[in-house]
Structures are given as C-alpha cells and as structure tokens.
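Obj: model holo form, ligand = alpha-D-ribofuranose.
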Amino acid sequence: MAGQKIAVVGSNMVDLITYTDRMPNPGETIEAPRFEMGCGGKGANQAIAAARLGAQVMMVTKVGDDIFADNTIRNFETSGIDTRFVERVPGTSSGVAPIFVDPTGENSILIIKGANAKLSPADVDRAEEALKDCALIVMQLEVPLETVYHTVALGARHGIETLLNPAPAPAELDASRIEALTFLVPNQTELATISGMPVESEADAEKAARVLIDRGIRTVIVTLGGKGALLVSAGAEIRRIGAVAVTPVDTTGAGDAFIGAFSRYYVETGDMEAALHKAVRYAADSITRPGTQKSYATAADFAAFLAKVGE
Ligand code: RIB
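Output (holo structure tokens):
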C-alpha cells in the first residue's frame, strides 16, 4: 500500500436538521420541537469520520461564497483535514441539506448541491500530484458524474485504490465507467439500480454484486442498514458482517460514518473484513446521538463503545 492517506473527492453540505413528530401534509403548518444546524454532505461526513478516527485525510471539494463556506472550511481545518483543494466558487451558494428526523430516528433529506455541482474533472486534475500520495480515493454521487468517472480513471492510471458510495441513488450511472473501482459500497436499492437486477434478499445481493465483479469491480460491499453488511469479493466466498443492537436516536449520516471508518481501518491494515467489523460498530454508535458529524465518535470514545459492545 502506497501510504495511509485517504482522499475524499466529493461533496460538503450544511445540514439543517428538524426533529419532528411527523411530516406536515400539503398546505399544513405544524410546529416541530427542535432544530440543529451542522456540517454535513456525504463526502465531508466520510472525511470527518475517518479523520476523527485518526486517519490522514485530504478533501477535494467546492464551497460557495457564503457564510456556510467559512464554517465548512474551518470545520475541515479543526479536524486536521488537508484543505489545499477546497475551493470557493464566487456567486454560488454552498451545498445545503434540509433534513427531517422522526421520533424513530429515521431521516428524510433534500439536497441543494450548490457549489458541489461545479466540482469538475479539471479540479481533480489540479489535485493529481497530491492524490498520488494517497492509498485510497473515496467518492459519492453528490458531485457531477463526469468528475466521478474521471477520478475512477485517474485512480486506475496511478494504481490508487478507489471506493464509490453510489449515493444518492443514481438515475443514470454508466456502470461501464466505474468498472475500474476497487470498492463499490451501495445499499440494496443502489445495487439494484446499478446492476439492473432485483435485490430483495441477501442471495439477490450476492448475485447482483457478482455481476458487477465479473465486469471488473474488485469488491462490492452491500450495506444492510441495521443488519450489518455483506462483503462480496472476486474469487472469494461472500462474508456477512453482523450488526450490533442499539437504540436509534438519529440515523442521519450513519452510512457515511460506516464508509469513513471502513476507509480508515482498511488503509491501515488492508484487512477488509476486520475494517468492516469496525465500520458496522462505528455507524451503530453514531446513531445513538443526534446530528450528522456531531454524532461521530473520536478514536477514544469509539474504543470505549467497542469495550461496551464487544470488538
Ligand atoms: O448521508 C447524510 C448526508 O446526506 C447529510 O449530511 C446531508 O448533507 C446529505 O448529503
């Protein structure tokens, strides 16, 4: 492995989280008990989770020219993230995500991409030399698809491992342009969309993952929400990583906590299964607290959680 640095080429948002007893009906106004604002965005969340667990992380992203931008950059800096490739876009808003969380902890999210929609292949090329020092490049789909395809190709060209979390669920992803990925990390819905196959059971998930692996992707990790994850790799038996039972308070960003933690432990050891075991637990711990990045444990707090639930 080239080194242990992780690059995230992806999004950042400001999360505007409303905790509500129920969603309003059309034309209705209701009062919600609580609101919180925090840093979010799938890319930034994954970067922060990895950094909070001690990884060296570099972020390639775009912010607007509003007050949200200053806050986002400060947040990266205080988390020790390399911000050399975080650029401001004049005349554009930062990405924003109004989020609604119900009493069971389930969330509904709207995203306004803002400056994230301007992250281009040229921006990735500007970071090329720095990317070459990274062991893993992590991506999501809140930035233009062309930028994702370009980054997958760049990773393959330089022998850098790449991970794509295809979220939000893609309407028009060209599967032929992500075949060089090392890791695809979809949930069941995203896997069904990308493979074009039904995914209603774990057997379906394995079949769909094998089709993508036959096309070139080395490993597919299927997230199963509260049930853990499946690890499907070329030439290996499927592995199931079980969940831990917790009482959810807010599930927002749990998938990102999972990916950040997986990336951090994978680059350290190269052991996918052990990294997934930790990632499932890190995500479970995150849903016991409100907020997105605010709910991500530090390495010390995560060690305490592991001691409680078992490694
Ligand atoms: O995955 C959770 C994230 O999705 C939130 O932080 C929100 O910003 C959206 O990007």
